[in-house]
Amino acid sequence: MCARERFDLVVVGAGPAGSATAISARDRGLDVLVIDKATFPRDKTCGDGLTTGALRSLEHLGLELDALPSYATVRETVLVSPSGRTISLPHPPTGQYAGVVPRADLDAALVELARRRGATVREGTGVDEVSVGPDHATVTLSDGRAAEAPFVVAADGHFSAVRRLLHPDAPADLGSWHAFRQYFRGVDDPRLWVLFEEDLLPGYAWVFPLPGGRANVGFGIPRGPGVDGKTLKATWLDLLERDRLRTVLGPDAQPEDPQRAWPIPAQLEPARLTDGRVLFAGDAASVVDPMTGEGIAQAFETAIAAGAAVAGGGDAPAVGARYRRAVERTLGADLRLAARLQRVLGSAFWARAALRTVDLTPWTRRNFARWMYEDYPRALLLTPRRWRRGMFTGPGAYRTA
């Protein structure tokens, strides 16, 4: 008989969604166990970008980003149209609207913050079994122990082990997008670049600046027939030879690690957010923005909502309904609009037209940057009546000095 421990909440996965869930739950007085099969710090394939929405959540959680040496604040964004037109988006002078930090450092800092808040964190520990009873769930760990709690939050990524254990015969979710990333050194441009290459639409290539002349460089494209690892690598090698990307990287840029690819789950389905006494958060809930591929801000939203839902008490139907309502309220309208815009931006004609509109005036450039980085809700685009209510007059979301 294995040793059995009891907690108020078991969180599977210690990435941004898992650690943030633990912090949210601990702040509400719950006894929390967090497990992850990895040992931190560990690399996680990602673009490493933080939108205003993510920065807001990190401030709410209590993480001091400025204490991380690898964190870079982005002060200017440059968009490159399929036609080659370059559009500079200087960020407002007060506040931080976007940042970049390697996931290895961000995730390790969040794990440590969860520990400091009082969560029990076990690294290098996987999940062998999940069973759900009428009043609790039991998670059997790879070290032979078992943890019991009224609820489990599965924040264990796109290929969620918890979901597979609960439904071993269900077809695998292959994701909505594919992304490809490589770190470079010798990149001196401090601006964040987004390049809309016609053959990638509605996807794009990026150069995200990091301290010390480093950059996260990559691209993302929708999943479709014929898009596999071999195709992604061929596309990547071709991109590196194109004048636009070579110009942005500069003559001294050199790759410092192998290329890595990963799938992106970007199709929110409310029915997949909960399964009895299990709540799914972050990539396990498929809440990535389908237009940009950004998922850290969305992971934090689901995590904070999950912690609050469990702390609110009640039986499984009540907690699940509370969680689904919170996710719909914070993410639903924005993700649906993003999916519609993604389809529009698949056309080079409409992509060029949209970027021409962005470049009309300093006002459109500044406020598009704030909209792109989620300082404004995505769905604000469809509610212009709100534009007259001071929506565009604030100084910024994360710090104002």
Helical percent range?
A: 25-40%
Counted by DSSP, the helix tally is 10
- Which architecture of the domain at 4-44 and 102-172 and 269-341 does the CATH hierarchy give at level 2? 3-Layer(bba) Sandwich
* Backbone shape: globular
Strand content: 15-25%
Task: Tell me, rounded to a whole number, the average pLDDT.
Answer: 91
In total, the number of strands is 21
In CATH terms, what is the fold-level topology of the domain at 4-44 and 102-172 and 269-341? FAD/NAD(P)-binding domain
Sheet with the most strands, sense and barrel status: 8 strands, mixed
Q: Separation of termini?
A: 57 Å
CATH superfamily of the domain at 4-44 and 102-172 and 269-341: FAD/NAD(P)-binding domain
Specify Rg, calculated over alpha carbons.
Answer: 21 Å
CATH class of the domain at 4-44 and 102-172 and 269-341: Alpha Beta
Unreliable parts: none
